[in-house]
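ugh ok fine here u go
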Amino acid sequence: MTSLQDISFLVLVPAALFLLFFHREKWNPLTSAIGYTERNTQPTLAGHEKNKLLKPTTSPRLQAKLKARLDTYKDMYYKIQNLEDFPEILPWARKMLLSLLHEGLLMTRYKPVKIPGGSILDITEFDAGRLHELIDARQADVGHEFEAYIRRREAGGGPELFQDLEGARRHLKRSACWNYVDGSWLARTNQITTPFVLRGVTKNAWQIFSEELGDGDLEKNHVVLYRDLLRSVGVDLPGGDTADFIHPRHGMDDEGGWRLSVAQLLLSVFPNDFLPEILGFNLYYESPALSNYLANREMPEFGISPYYYALHISIDNPDSGHCAMALGNIVSFLKVVRETDIMSYENAWRRIQAGYVLGQTAEDKETVLHYEDQLVEFIYRKANIAEKIHCTSRARVGGRSLSSWSSSSSSNKRTDDNQGKDTFLAALADSKPWVYRGDSARSRLVREVTWKGRMFGAFTHDEVHVLRTWIDSLPPAAAEDSDPSLWAAAAYWDLVGEFQSVEKKFDPPRRDDVAVTHPVFPPMRAWDHLSPSPSLIAAALPGRFTSRAPLPVELILLAGGTTNPADTLHRDKLARVLVPLWFAHPCLLETVVSASPYKTTTPLVSLCLQLLRAEKGYMPEGSGIACMDEQHHQQQQTQKHTQRGLQNTSTSSPDLVTLGLHMVDRHDLVTPRPGCLGDVLPPCGQSDDAQVSEAVKFAYDLLSWAQRPIRNGTFLLGLSRAFLDLEVLVAGTEDLLDRKERGALQRMIERKLVGFDKCIVHLMEEGDGGRKYGEFVVGYETGRDELERLLM
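structure:
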């Protein structure tokens, strides 16, 4: 027979335990979810089965927590886009990202989704065919739901995404924070610190980012298009990368939208550590979204251009667009993983799934916070109903009788008594055997409220589901007493496998080495106080920039056939100087573009993007968009080499790294063959040759300057122009590269010369008294001085 003490305990324990976890002053790793996006407004897709919230809630407790998170996310949003000014946030950024990933997986328990084709989590072992089927099913699902929407509209139904012009304006303004960073998760995927074996994969991923930015054409830049769309409806916001943008006065207070925005930015910050998650998130986010179809239909009804949404419907298509590219990236990445063991194959797939789920959970307004709030509400309702039976209970919790706890709850049942609930739950945190943290199956409470339990029927089916999920999400008591974010990280890695980075592991470790890891902010050599030479002063005069004479070819004696030992020694030393400079210099413009999509909305940065595209081996920009053409082009080159029995060591448009590897292979310049920049650059200063040490030191200077693009932007552009002279030298030296490779480099040089000329014209017309133009010239002169000093 059930005693009164048992009944009282059964009713109160879950409420107490929930509130202990929910009302901690520390940051709760389980309350960082991806939430509201523009996709949230779409109707449930046909065939979906979702557990809706048991009852809508607007509790003050929930709203206070959402407000606190809103402020945190806004702060992170601004600082990540200006990372060089806030490098101290990096540990917190990593913790926040892990919390988001963990909660994404947790949301699949709270709110499982079933669609035709199944969930990506159903694919326990990677199967490219099943993944294709999943994407096809999602495309069909969106199509069916849109057809149903059209039928409702034809039957006289009104707009469903928003009801009037003001509603459309609010929708567009609310969506600005994530549309201003659209594609950011891919921004750093193809950096110079990317392992060389993965550069084929990351090149294709970064292409999507480039196309989101219009391939350097401002008219096609998606951020510019969205900003223009906002202005067309009378919304003129500050720059998306400014502190003013996150100010409360703008009324952009949708916590979920900021959460999604921060998730996109956080993924971008650690490209080598979270590449699988980035690729998974990218697949979901580049897949069809019903909200785009609805916006494309409804915007014209209120006199608003739908082109921004029509563009995304077209460009994200799963045949030749970004969705197809994202799927191909995953297949290619896992192929490399299997062939190289760069990380665990199973671990890589599980993390791709987690990244996809992170994007998927962004469809829902509800988050774990909302479900937990419902949990505490329905448990306290039951506690108040059972109030009268608590008076005879002899059970004591935290030194107090259950009746005193119940009386406190009853007297405050019309208020939000957070402190009392927190205290109560803190006392009941370790009330075993009723609740075992992380193990609902072992918890007596769950057994008692399910079939054959003494309290079966006191909780509904959905309430039991929420209760089970919540108990399973509780951290160990010891973890909760420490830093909760550390527990979130551990919990995530427990779900997907141990942490593995695609970075090479060095002994001793080099995780704080800017040549190995991104991002790292080493000390920076000052350049803005350099004493200008007379030639620099003359060159800095507006309209008089002239590059120096070409570097003399005889500086590099790599031609084969020499028998003179002195020539051989000089040749080898020059090779050891050339190699670190060549492999480091692609870094110069990378962060100028990758810092923030919003920063690419200026003419100068858009021109830098086109220079980068040339350096990274992309086809020249045209009036259209490449999408899958780039990948098809590479595949055709591979097939030709395979048919001829050759290794695919050359393409018609190699990037600077590939050309560097060709030089290394052709002349055995580095043994063994380098697998990453860290193999080329020893830790700064570790060389027995003074000239080589100086070259390595300057290479590290380049990397350090490049980590601070906001401060050094035009200086970096000038340095890059100086290294174009080095590229001209290499292209003109017959034995460094073969004929086809030199031809490819020459075509790259020609594109870059045109691009730099455009940059110089823009700098001369900047209207800042020649300041930026002068910085460009300082960068150029500094680079040329160093190159000539090191190669002499």
